[in-house]
Amino acid sequence: ETGVTQTPRHLVMGMTNKKSLKCEQHLGHNAMYWYKQSAKKPLELMFVYNFKEQTENNSVPSRFSPECPNSSHLFLHLHTLQPEDSALYLCASSQGVAGNTIYFGEGSWLTVV
Amino acid sequence: GQNIDQPTEMTATEGAIVQINCTYQTSGFNGLFWYQQHAGEAPTFLSYNVLDGLEEKGRFSSFLSRSKGYSYLLLKELQMKDSASYLCAEILTGGGNKLTFGTGTQLKVEL
User: Fold this and answer.
1) What is the reported pLDDT for B2?
2) Is B89 in Cβ contact with A103 (below 8 Å)?
3) Which of B33, B42, B96 is opposite residue A56, by nearest beta carbon?
4) DSSP state of A84
5) Where are the beta strands (DSSP E) in B2-104?
6) Which residues of A touch B96 (CB under 8 A)?
7) Could you report the per-residue pLDDT of A88-107, keeping only the tens digit for each?
């Protein structure tokens, strides 16, 4: 139990579907992140939110749409994805964005068919 | 990821010591993390180094040389459960808390 909970753990969706990934952190942190982990590739930062405000969008395609209603919750809305978007999507949180340790959730395995 | 270089795979024997090396971009360097990730699980924090030297935490130690752009993770008294991927990641100045990860080193511990 890392204090960062992600649902669903596994998701299969068609290219025309709309789905969402949910993340909740129970650590009292104020920064939250989405990372993408593909096979044989490094973890890639997608988005950073600090006190609900987006502070980083790492050139992510618009078919991925994040939402951060408060410091404890983060969503990733998915729409018209491509098969190459199949990956493990990891949510993380930290206390601030100044070199503090980042704690990861267990991830959501996404398969786009 | 292209700024971080670590071996793809390593194999070691139970009870032995293994050293996993990592080289990183030195320009703007502001700290180095090591994470452990078991298959299908979250990466978990192991260590953070920002100053030169060795940080020891039980069976795990992490070393940093800022002038050489080099770090290593040392695992002692290896156990089967230490079989996992070990991720090296750096933070750059002015980059907020954006970690740049290497591809990870898959460690296999054998009997």
Assistant:
1) 60
2) no
3) B96
4) G
5) 9-13, 18-23, 29-37, 44-49, 53-57, 60-65, 70-75, 84-92, 99-101
6) 48, 50, 55-56, 97-98
7) 999 999 997 766 889 999 99
